[in-house]
């Protein structure tokens, strides 16, 4: 089924909803195994990671709680400027907790480098990164995910929570937004 491609010809499906589902189940199982006997706090990075977090959480068989954080990077469109600003902090104390930051894409690494420093200051027991997508060829900051869904080439993607100018977040598949399609 490629219904998204039918209604929006500028979008090319990169990972279907079924492929995403299978991978999210695997990551959830890995996290469940790695934290056996422990509880975790999933800290979602708004807004892009919200669909990933909600599906991942349902595949983690542990005592889990949620919190959310939001950042904006200066600059618009597809380019990140490297300057990250916190627009919403977590609501709960992370001290002594097993924190997993849940992100949509690890791209240049500026956002997660900033967030890891910020969250480390809250003195968690442990701090790891789960990102749905990883674009290693774009990395500027030396940061790696502990869990990732898929490594992708340098393409701009939308859907399954990810946007271009706030559009396409509700697409069930992850799609490449082709030039001229926005
Ligand atoms: P970084 O700070 O460059 O690692 O950027 C991470 C953020 O940039 C992600 O959380 C996304 O919000 C955004 N981003 C990077 N690549 C894409 C993309 O292909 N589609 C949508 N958003 C992206
Ligand atoms: Mg994001």
Determine the mean pLDDT.
92
Q: What structural category arises from helix and sheet content?
A: alpha/beta
Top CATH class: Alpha Beta
Rounded radius of gyration (Å)? 16 Å
Helix content: 10-25%
- Bound ions, cofactors and other small molecules, one mention each: inosinic acid, magnesium ion
* H-E string: HEHEHEEEHEEEE
What is CATH's topology name? Rossmann fold
Quickly count the helices.
4
The total count of strands amounts to 9
Give the helix/strand layout.
Blueprint: H1 3-7, E1 11-15, H2 17-34, E2 39-46, H3 50-57, E3 63-73, E4 84-88, E5 98-106, H4 110-120, E6 126-134, E7 147-151, E8 157-158, E9 174-177
Parallel strand pairs: 2-3, 2-5, 5-6, 6-7
Antiparallel strand pairs: 1-9, 3-4, 8-9
The structure holds inosinic acid (IMP) and magnesium ion.
Characterize the structure shown.
Strands 4-3-2-5-6-7 form a six-stranded mixed beta sheet, sandwiched between helices. It is an alpha/beta fold and 182 residues long. Helix 2 packs across helix 3. It has four helices and nine strands, in the order H-E-H-E-H-E-E-E-H-E-E-E-E. The mean pLDDT is 92. Strand 5 (98-106), helix 4 and strand 6 (126-134) form a beta-alpha-beta unit. It has a single domain, classed as Rossmann fold (3-Layer(aba) Sandwich). The structure holds inosinic acid (IMP) and magnesium ion. Residues 45, 48, 104 line the site of magnesium ion.
């Amino acid at each position: 089924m490629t219904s998204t491609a039918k209604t929006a010809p500028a979008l090319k499906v990169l990972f279907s909803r079924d492929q995403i589902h299978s991978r999210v189940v695997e990551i959830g199982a890995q996290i469940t195994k790695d934290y056996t006997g422990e509880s975790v706090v999933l800290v979602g990075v708004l807004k892009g990671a919200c669909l990933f977090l909600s599906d991942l959480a349902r595949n983690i068989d542990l005592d889990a709680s949620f919190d959310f954080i939001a950042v904006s990077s200066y600059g618009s469109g597809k380019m990140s400027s490297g300057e990250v600003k916190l627009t919403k902090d977590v609501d709960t104390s992370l001290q002594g907790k097993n924190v997993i930051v849940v992100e949509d894409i690890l791209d240049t690494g500026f956002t997660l480098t900033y967030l890891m420093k910020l969250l480390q200051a809250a003195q968690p027991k442990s701090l790891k990164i789960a990102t749905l997508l990883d674009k290693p060829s774009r990395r500027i900051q030396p940061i790696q995910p502990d869990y990732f869904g898929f490594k992708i080439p340098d393409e701009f993607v939308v859907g399954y929570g990810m946007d271009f100018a706030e559009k396409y977040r509700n697409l069930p598949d992850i799609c490449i937004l082709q030039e001229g399609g926005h």
